[in-house]
Amino acid sequence: MTDGGGGPPAAHGDGHGGQRAPHDLTGPLAPYRSPRTLPPGQQALPDLPVMHYGRVPRHRPERWRLTVEGATRDGERHDLDMAAFEALPRTSVRADLHCAARWSVLDNEWSGVATRTLVEAYPPADDVVGALVYAEYGYSATVRLEDLTSPRTLLATHRGGEPLTPEHGHPVRLVLPHLYSWKGPKWFRGWEYVTEVKRGFWEERGYHAVGDCWRQERYSYQEEEEPGRG
Ligand SMILES: Nc1nc2c(c(=O)[nH]1)N[C@H]1C(S)=C(S)[C@@H](COP(=O)(O)O)O[C@H]1N2
Ligand SMILES: [Mo]
Q1: CB atoms within 10 A of CB 40
Q2: Pfam families, from UniProt (predicted)?
Q3: In the chain, at which end, N or C, are there fewer CB atoms within 10 A of the end residue's CB?
Q4: Residues whose beta carbon lies within 6 Å of some atom of ligand 1
């Protein structure tokens, strides 16, 4: 094959801005076919498995509250019922989900309420370092304030345009795209602002206080290897 074929662009160009061959989407330099960069040690799965500790709770809309408590700036505890939560402005985030057990699911289209919106409405006291985020049945995780307020952190109610199913966290799950997914409770119920790190469910069982998947922060012993990231 001498022309118009499927070789890489370098085989056709004259090096002076002349005619380039039409891009061959199956060729070795095809940009959209190159493997997606995943955090180290992760492998992609085609769709979300169902993965959690314990049972799927039953949602009771009239009893449901989302709570912001602990070291709030005004010293008050704030409870939102379903109607108040549904009245908040909405946004969406496309994000990969990374489980510490080494699987990832790419391109989840989450929509819901930016976590920042609630942090701004109910801000922390000056000495707050993070939050213990929690769900039904006492599941919890510790997150730093900067992770909670990241512009991509979302209180998701929908995935792929559909309301969350019960096993994936209906009515609300916390999504922190850059942290391992144990940090994001399904059946989310709120957070407690903390002035020093308070370990959650997995962090008390040997998992990392920060949990940045790009740094492979899985285990708590890694906190000692890098003081200041605990
Ligand atoms: N409430 C609650 N949320 C949870 C968990 C859990 O055990 N309880 N497990 C976490 C973990 S380890 C993972 S990998 C994801 C799995 O989400 P999925 O079941 O939608 O795939 O949920 C996270 N959120
Ligand atoms: Mo996980």
Answers
A1: 10
A2: Oxidored_molyb (PF00174)
A3: N
A4: 48-53, 99, 135, 139, 168, 181-182, 184-187
Name, in order, each residue with C-beta under 8 angstroms of 215's C-beta and a sequence gap of 6 or more.
Answer: none
8 Å CB contact between 155 and 190: no
pLDDT, tens digit, 9 for 90 and up, residues 177-200: 999 999 999 999 999 999 999 999
- Produce one character per residue of 78-114: b if its CB has 16 or more CB atoms within 10 Å, e if not: bebebeebeebeebebebbbbbbeebbbeebebbbbb
Closest CA to 152 of 95, 105, 99, 108: 95
Per DSSP, the three-state class of 218 is coil
Pairing of the two strands 188-194 and 65-70: parallel
**Tokens describing residue 65:** 């509250």
d(CA 71, CA 49): 36
Structure tokens at 161: 């345009």
Residue ranges of domains in the chain, CATH in brackets: 38-225 (3.90.420.10)
Question: What's the predicted TM-score (pTM) here?
Answer: 0.86
Which residue owns the Cα nearest ligand 1 atom 17? 51
